[in-house]
Specification:
This protein has 495 residues and is of the alpha/beta class. Helices cover 20% and strands 20% of the residues. Among the domains are: 200 residues, no CATH class; 135 residues, no CATH class. The termini are far apart.
């Protein structure tokens, strides 16, 4: 054996934990140097003499430790192997436990250290790396040292990076079994899809290509590009599906999302459940939130409150809200204007405080009645509904032309149409009062003409009984009065 050495040493690249390995070799070199410097000292390998030191000077290419034959070189401590350099197409470097090994034919492999009796670290494919720990394997150990190259296990125990370019950072019992798969750490995690990742946690599986499980426990990302952020017992089983966290949630529709919560399911295409409990969005583009909300039809939005009653949509593209405590909608940033549907109620209550209004002007009720009389009122159906569904009322253009109320001429505000109706009632009341006065006067005249007393009114006034027929009744009175006068003149009575 011929050994040459000088001030600098050369070590193979791609060494995880390279600082420790370099230090070991450095101290070995110092020991060799001391032996060479004193050839009269003890010879470490009886039967093989150390050569003279060659390569003094500053030429780095002439400074090396070398064996002259195709054989491994070992450094031992107290009789046990601590470092082994094996000749291959790129030499292997094996540190740590003496049972650590690189499969024959696998070059450029590195075992930086670790291992123990019965639990050696191994590299079975070319360019693989084990940084340390125990019972870790880089490679698939199928006898072909070239089909799972560049696998890496950083440390931990019982870990296996068996896919090409696969990585297990550490932890216990983790498996990265596909190309470019990664397990960061944790316990009993598996990344079996190409380029899949399990960052950590316990018993998580990323089996789809490019799938990801960030952490948590017993989570599964089973299809391409599927993601589980964390939590427990969550399953993203469709392509592009996502479960953010929570527990026992399932995203089984293409690109479906469950944000969190518990026992939620997003099974439709692009369906969403942001959280809550026991919600189901099975329709495509459906949205279910709260508790026991069921968006079973496509395009449904369903919100359930905290009660134990399931609320569902009955048709596509329906908006359904269950809110036992009522609904509130604010239309101003300072929350001064609003409409409420109070708990248990079936009508809206909207803000109408005097202090929220200004620029008051009086309304001529009789003019409103006259404008209403001129405004067309018809029956019709909405083009967005079936022809059989009929409605009655004005169109927005006619309403706006008659009263000029609202934001534009394409809509009618419910408050405006209520105001017009109330003003019209007041106008009709004024007209009825005027008619009542005229009727009283006519009754008095009729009574005087007949020589009697004014008509007696019972508990139900005559005015109330003739109100619906006011104008007709008034005309009738004029006709009756005229006939009476004619008859009296014909009979020679007094005029």
């Amino acid at each position: 054996m011929k050994i040459q050495m000088s001030r600098q040493l050369f070590l193979p690249a791609a060494v995880l934990g390279g600082v420790a390995v370099f230090a070991a070799v450095f101290f070995v070199a110092l020991a060799v140097r001391s032996v060479v410097a004193d050839p009269s000292g003890p010879v470490p390998n009886p039967g093989h003499a150390w050569t003279e030191v060659q390569g003094h000077g500053d030429d780095a290419d002439a400074c090396y430790v070398s064996t002259e034959s195709y054989q491994a070189f070992e450094v031992r401590v107290n009789g046990d192997r601590a470092l082994r350099l094996e000749p291959e197409w790129v030499p292997n470097l094996i540190g740590g436990y003496s049972g650590n090994a690189v499969t024959d034919g696998s070059g450029a492999a590195t075992i930086s250290g670790g291992g123990e009796s019965g639990l050696p670290n191994r590299v079975t494919d070319g360019s693989g790396t084990v940084g340390g720990g125990a019972d870790n394997t880089a490679g698939n150990d199928d006898g072909d040292g070239g089909n799972a190259e560049f696998a890496t296990v950083g440390g931990g125990r019982h870990n296996n990076a068996s896919g090409p370019d696969a990585t297990v950072g550490g932890g216990h019992g983790n498996q990265a079994s596909a190309n470019n798969a990664t397990v960061g750490g944790g316990l009993s995690n598996t990344a079996s899809g190409a380029a899949a990742t399990v960052s950590g946690g316990v018993e998580n599986t990323a089996s789809g290509n490019n799938a990801t499980v960030s952490g948590g426990a017993s989570n599964q990302a089973q299809n391409a590009h599927a993601t589980v952020g964390g939590g427990y017992s969550n399953d993203a089983s469709a392509e592009g599906a996502t479960v953010g966290g929570g527990g026992s949630n399932t995203a089984s529709g293409y690109t479906a999302v469950v944000g969190g919560g518990v026992m939620n399911t997003a099974g439709g295409y692009a369906a969403s459940v942001p959280g809550g409990g026991e919600n189901t969005a099975l329709g495509d583009f459906g949205f279910a939130a709260g508790r026991l909300a069921n968006a079973a039809q496509n395009g449904c939005f369903v919100w359930g409150d905290s009660t134990t009653t399931t609320v569902s949509c009955d048709s596509t593209d329906e908006f359904v809200v269950q809110a036992g405590g009522g609904l509130e909608f604010y239309s101003s940033s300072d929350l001064s204007t609003y409409c409420n549907l109070n708990a248990g109620g079936n009508s809206w209550s909207c803000s109408s405080d005097r202090d929220l209004k200004e620029n008051f002007t009086p309304v001529d009720g009789q003019a409103v009645v006259a404008a209403l009389a001129e405004m067309p009122i018809s029956m019709w159906n909405s083009k967005a509904q079936d022809d059989s569904i009929r409605h009655m009322g004005p169109v927005a253009q006619d309403f706006y032309a008659a009263f000029g109320l609202g934001e534009d001429e394409l809509s009618i505000g419910s408050g405006d149409i209520d105001g017009v109706a109330l003003a019209a009632i007041q106008g009709l009341y004024e007209l009825s009062q005027e008619q009542a006065e005229r009727i009283d006067a006519l009754e008095a005249r009729v009574a005087a003409l007949e020589g009697g007393t004014p008509l007696e009114r019972g508990s139900e006034s005559l005015l109330a009984s003739i109100m619906p027929f006011g104008p007709l009744f008034l005309a009738g009175l004029f006709v009756v009065g005229g006939l009476v006068l004619v008859e009296r003149r014909r009979a020679g009575g007094r005029s």
